[in-house]
Write the C-alpha cells for this entry.
Amino acid sequence: METATLHRISEQEWRIEPHGKMLVPAVIYASERLAREMDEKVREQLENVASLPGIERAAYAMPDAHWGYGFPIGGVAAFDAGRGGVVSAGGVGFDISCGVRTMLTGLQAEDIEEVKQELANALFHHIPAGVGSRGKIELTDAELDAMLEGGAEWALRRGYGCEADLSRTEEHGRVEGANALAISAFAKNRQRREMGTLGSGNHYLEVQRVTEVYDEAAAAVFGLRVNDVVVSIHCGSRGLGHQIGTEYLREMLVQAKSYGIELPDRELACAPIDSPLGQKYLGAMRGGINCALANRQIITHLVRRAFAEVLPAAELTVLYDVSHNTCKVEEHRTNGTEKTVFVHRKGATRAFGPNHPAVPEALRAVGQPVLIGGTMGTASYILRGMEEGEARSFSSSCHGAGRQMSRTQATKHWRGRQLMDELAARGILIRSPSPRGVAEEAPGAYKDVSVVVEASENAGLSKRVARLEPMICIKG
C-alpha cells in the first residue's frame, strides 16, 4: 500500500480522513513495514466500509489485514441500529465463527517427543480433515436444529466434553438469538455429516509447545509455562456457514435498493439491522456461530480420545475458545456515551481487557485470552486483551499472520510432499489428506506472525503472553 495516501498518527496507527461518501475515518493499525506490504485493496475496502449507514467511530483494519470479500480480512466495524445501522454478511465472512480453541495438557515437550509419531497418527485418525471431510456423526433434521440453537451446550448434552469446557468458551458455548428456521434446508444438509471435522484451507489442529513467556503474571493465570504442551484447534462452521453467507449476500444485494441503501461495492451487500432481512440474517448467522462452537466442542472430545490412547496421563482442559468471524451485540463507549452496537469482526479477534464482565472470572484480572494462529512451520501466540483496546478498536485485535500470497501462487512456489519432509526434518510432523492443501498453506505464503503480534501490542490492541511452536499439525 502506498503510505503517502495515509496520514500517520503514530508508529502503529494510520488514518484516512472522511472524504467522498465516507461517514467516518478509516484507521489502519500496522507498523510501517506491514502498512507498505498491505494490498491497495485494503485501503479501498476500508473506505467503502466507512461509508455504510450507521457506522460508529471508524472503520478499522488490524495489522494482519489483507483483501477480502467486501470487508478486508482483518476488518472491524460497529453499527448502531438506532441510527439506521446495517448488518453485512460480507462483514462476517463465509466461515462464520471461525475461531481458535486452545487446551492445556499438563504435559511437557519431552513427553510428546517419545510418542510423537504415534500421537500424530492417532489425531489424524480421529479428526477428519480436508475438503468435504465427513465425520462419523450424522444428524437428523431435528438434531440439526437443536445443534444450531444449542451450540456447544448441545454438544455437551450429547456427551462431548465436560461442563468446565463451557466456562472457558466465548458466550459460554451458545449465542442467544439463533434461529434454525432462518437457515435453508440446503445449508443444513451440507452440515449433516460435517460435525467434528476440521475442513480445509487454513484450518488445523496443532500440538504446540510454549517456547517463550512474555508476561509472567498473565501466563500464570492462563496456566502457561515454558516447555508446556498445548493443543490448538482452528476451524469454523464448515459448509453450513459458507452457504449461509452465500445465500444472504445474494438476498441482501437484491433488496438493498428497497431499503434505500446505495452500495459502494456489490460485495458489501447489507440490510438494516432492524429490518426483517437483517433480523433473519442475524438469526441464521447466530446459528452458524453455534455450529462452529459445537464443532470445536466435538473436536475437543475427539482430541481427548486420541490422547487417551497414546498418553493416558494427559489431562486436557480448555484455556479458552474465541471466534474471529462474527457480528456481536456489545456495549461500547462512542462519543462519550455507552451504546449498544453490532460489532462486525472479520478476521479479527475479540480482545476484552482486564475486569470485563464477559471474561471468565478466573481470567478476568488479566483480561481475555486472545488466540492467534500462525502457520504450520512458524509460531502461534497467546495474547491478552488490553484496556485501551476498547477505545482503539472496539476491543479487537489481529487473528493470525494474514496471507501475502494467493493459494494458486503458493502452489507454484512449493510442493506439499517436499514441504512436509522439510518440516519433519525440523521436528514438525504434518498429517494431511492433501499435499496440495499443504502447499497452499506454506508458511511463506503468510506474513510474519511475530511482526503482526508485535504491531498489535505496540498499537495497544493486545499484549503478548506466550509464544507457541508446532510439534504436530493436522492439516486439511
